[in-house]
UniProtKB/TrEMBL annotation:
Annotated family: Belongs to the peptidase M48 family.
Pfam families: Peptidase_M48
UniProt keywords, alphabetically: Hydrolase, Metal-binding, Metalloprotease, Protease, Zinc
UniProt cross-references to InterPro entries, sorted A to Z: Mito/Outer_Membr_Metalloprot, Peptidase_M48
Molecular-function GO terms, alphabetical: metal ion binding; metalloendopeptidase activity
Gene3D superfamilies: Metalloproteases ('zincins'), catalytic domain
Peptidase M48 domain residues: 72-246
CC cofactor note: Binds 1 zinc ion per subunit.
Protein known as: M48 family metalloprotease
Native source species: Poritiphilus flavus
Statement: the UniProt record of this protein carries the keyword Nucleotidyltransferase: no
Length: 254
């Protein structure tokens, strides 16, 4: 490669990386419901559209919706109670709760914009208050805009990777860092959602101590071969229990 061409590639690469960082700074905004400053590059309407578009495929991956309408009605009732008694009712999101037929995977998750899912495998282990804790946690992910934040981070790292690839043969390293940040919600996201979930439980008249039992259920389901916390995107259940107890004391004014 000629020397002049090499210099041009470096310049273009640096310009692309600089653009990514400038755009990231411009995308910073304060979440009106949590007060946290985040990197967000989409509107609430776009979040809702993404969630609605993705929901059918997500349901299909877990065997579709659970066929018993009575149980779905219970999930709806608990979820809507949490929304109506919390700041969730003030948000522009469309909260819809889905009980999935999957009876093997113990899981619950939320898509951007308010689409919330819980598998029958997890649902079947919970009482109503514990179900409220799980759904409140997932509502917390929506209000915390955690998916939108990961999407913005993904776009940022893709642009940085492009600049690194143009300027030098280092794109693989940068790209892998970006991908790893998007696999699941980060530990901070999980703890923030736990905290919001406890607040929503208290506001809706549920016993927040039941959330500790949810953590114990998750810990037992993970088994003895659970990965150490530093190897996981989720905090260790024991660590989450400690934080949950702190949230309960804080919101009860103790």
């Amino acid at each position: 490669m000629r020397r002049g061409s090499w210099k041009i590639r470096i310049f273009i690469g640096l310009a692309i990386v600089a653009f990514a960082f400038i755009q990231r700074c411009n995308n910073k905004e304060e979440n009106p419901y949590t007060g946290r400053v985040q990197n967000i590059n989409m509107t609430a309407d776009q979040e809702i559209a993404i969630g609605l578009q993705s929901a059918p495929e997500i349901a299909q991956q877990h065997g579709g919706l659970y066929p018993d309408e009575r149980l779905q009605t219970l999930v709806d009732a608990v979820g809507n109670r949490l929304v109506q008694h919390s700041i969730a009712r003030e948000t522009p999101y469309r909260y819809e709760f889905h009980l999935l037929a999957d009876d093997r995977t113990i899981n619950a998750f939320a898509l951007p914009g308010g689409q919330i899912f819980i598998t029958y495998a997890l649902f079947s282990k919970l009482n109503e208050a514990q179900l409220a804790g799980v759904l409140g946690h997932e509502i917390g992910h929506v209000i915390g805009r955690h998916s939108a934040e990961r999407i913005a981070e993904s776009n940022f790292w893709k642009t940085v990777t492009m600049g690194a690839t143009v300027g030098a043969d280092a794109g693989g390293i940068v790209g892998s860092i970006g991908q790893n940040t998007l696999l699941k919600n980060g530990r901070g996201d999980e703890l923030e959602s736990d905290d919001l979930g406890i607040l929503f439980m208290i506001q809706s008249g549920y016993e927040p101590e039941e959330m500790i039992k949810v953590m114990q259920i998750l810990k037992a389901a993970a088994g003895p071969n659970r990965a150490p916390e530093f190897q996981s995107t989720h905090p260790d259940p024991d660590n989450r229990i400690q934080k949950i107890r702190e949230s309960i004391k804080r919101y009860r004014g103790q």
